[in-house]
Design brief:
- The protein has two domains: 14-156, D-3-phosphoglycerate dehydrogenase, domain 3 (60s Ribosomal Protein L30, Chain: A, 2-Layer Sandwich); 210-468, no CATH class.
- Helix content is 50%, strand content 10%.
- It is built from 20 helices and nine strands.
- The strands form three sheets. Strands 5-2-6-7-8 form a five-stranded mixed sheet. The chain has a two-stranded antiparallel sheet with strand order 1-9.
- Mean pLDDT is 92; it is low at 160-178.
- The structure holds iron/sulfur cluster.
């Protein structure tokens, strides 16, 4: 898998509930120019039903069927699509066919979780004029905006490793059509220990290993261009976040705070020297996640709900540590990407499977690794930073109030960013002889914790803060 499968341009508020479903809908309709579709139904199962309204899943699937993508969709159209479809009662498909569409009947919200499947599943069914099914496909939105069809999901389950540090190495990662793979990467790794071994053998940093792998598929200038785009989207998102005020959509009456927090910081009126770094980290993360909650354009890093952690840590580094150059940015993204891939391949980055430990926890772990590398950490210290950050997110549940990615999600990103910085600094003071818990062990623990976690705490809004926390 390429790191660009982790860092994608998306639209808020959720990678698994917005970005993934939009991609699935587009995939369903792409290339079907000869199909005489007269009606379409979309069944949203499990978590996509339980929190899909707050997460914009309905908007996403309509736009995907129209041929839109999360990278390019017009933000105004995104905000108004439901009103448009409900008033016109038609939908113009990506293959240019116009069909009648009844929003209330043709989107089926189904609380049941598909057996043996992933908690986020959606099924598109196309019918001809006689009401006969002419195409039907189920997709799973597995986190970070990635989607799989059923056979691919089974492949992924089969390819999961017995993540013991002494386990036999597998020399391939999962095979599937929906997640683009690198072509013959020179360094094949499945675990954190593999990464350390390769690093030792070839005298390469973790960032070098990932860069050499990416070069198997992309040219150097393509990589630089992609990283440029990602960083520019992150910066624009922070900028919009600190310029915008008002109430976030969804009915929870959450006021945007980033602008006020930023104003306080730049006017120095309430500065506390002992918390200044944390204050900036929090403000950057909150700016991004308010934009995400408002349906703005963000980088999934590795998910939308956790999109604020990495931009926050990068902005913090630039402001308080060293100027961010292109080279430093690439070191950060390659290192953070390596860690994100380990979580994605060996566990999951979906809140519906792992709880928030799999989203903000993973983002924090990735950011800690990237920051440790930028601060001069060796590969063992980088691995250690990633481990520390996740160790202290283990067990964190996903319980978004009203199914919106606002409470606790926005502040949670601030906390994830602060923990990432702390983890990186703690790791830089460590040596291998101190290490009691490896990154591989913590990934394994996160996966088991996620599997053991009661379903009400996994992006269903049926437990936790979603039920007990807020006086509306
Ligand atoms: S609680 Fe965490 S995992 Fe759940 S929606 Fe919010 S950010 Fe995502």
């Amino acid at each position: 898998m390429s790191i660009f499968e982790l860092f994608k341009i998306g639209i808020g508020p959720s990678s698994s509930h917005t970005v993934g479903p939009m991609k699935a809908a587009k995939l369903f309709i792409d290339g079907e120019d000869n199909l005489d579709i007269q009606r379409l139904s979309i069944r949203l199962n499990g978590s996509l039903c339980l929190t899909g309204k707050g997460h914009g899943t309905d908007r996403a699937v309509l736009l995907g069927l129209m041929g839109e993508t999360p990278e390019r969709v017009d933000e105004d159209l995104y905000q108004t699509i439901i009103e448009r479809v409900t008033s016109q009662k038609t939908l113009k498909l990506g293959n240019s066919q116009i069909i009648s569409f009844n929003y209330d009947n043709d989107i089926i919200w189904d609380k049941t979780f598909l057996k043996e499947g992933h908690p986020n599943s959606l099924t598109f069914t196309a019918y001809d004029g006689a009401g006969k099914t002419i195409k039907s496909e189920t997709y799973y939105s597995v986190g970070g905006g990635s989607i799989l069809k059923a056979p691919e999901l089974n492949d992924k389950k089969d390819s999961m490793l017995p993540r013991d540090s002494n386990s036999e190495k597998k020399d391939t990662v999962q095979s599937n059509d929906s997640i683009p793979k690198l072509k013959s990467p020179p360094h094949v790794y499945s675990t954190g220990n593999d990464l350390l071994d390769i690093s030792e053998l070839h005298k390469l940093s973790i960032s070098d290993i990932v860069r050499e792998n990416e070069l198997s598929t992309y040219t150097s200038s393509q990589i630089d261009d992609k990283l440029d785009v990602i960083w520019n989207v992150m910066k624009s998102c922070v900028k919009r976040g600190i310029e915008t005020e008002g109430v976030l959509p969804g009915g929870l009456n959450v006021f945007r705070r980033a602008k006020d927090l930023h104003n306080e910081l730049i006017t120095n009126t309430k500065i506390n020297k002992s918390t200044i770094g944390m204050d900036w980290l929090s403000m950057y993360a909150i700016a991004v996640n308010e934009e995400n909650a408002a349906g703005g354009r963000v980088v999934t890093a590795p998910t939308n709900g956790a999109a604020g952690v990495i931009p926050s840590v990068l902005h913090y580094f630039d402001k308080f540590e060293q100027s961010l150059t292109k080279e430093k940015l690439s070191v950060f993204f390659f290192t953070a990407g390596a860690v994100g891939m380990l979580f994605k391949e060996n566990a999951s980055i979906s809140g519906a499977e792992m709880g928030c430990q799999g989203e903000v926890g993973v983002a924090s772990s990735m950011a800690a690794a990237g920051l440790a590398a930028l601060l001069g950490g060796n590969p063992e210290q980088v691995e250690c930073a990633a481990e520390i950050a996740m160790e202290h997110h283990l067990g964190m549940t996903c319980d978004p109030v009203k199914g919106l990615v606002q409470i606790p999600c926005i502040e949670r990103n601030a906390m994830g960013a602060i923990k990432a910085v702390n983890a990186a600094h703690l790791a830089l003071k460590r040596t291998l002889s101190y290490r009691k818990v490896s990154l591989d062990r913590v990934i394994k623990t996160m996966k088991k914790t996620g599997e053991d976690m009661n379903r009400t705490y996994k992006e269903t809004s049926l437990g936790g803060l979603a039920v007990h926390g807020v006086e509306c």
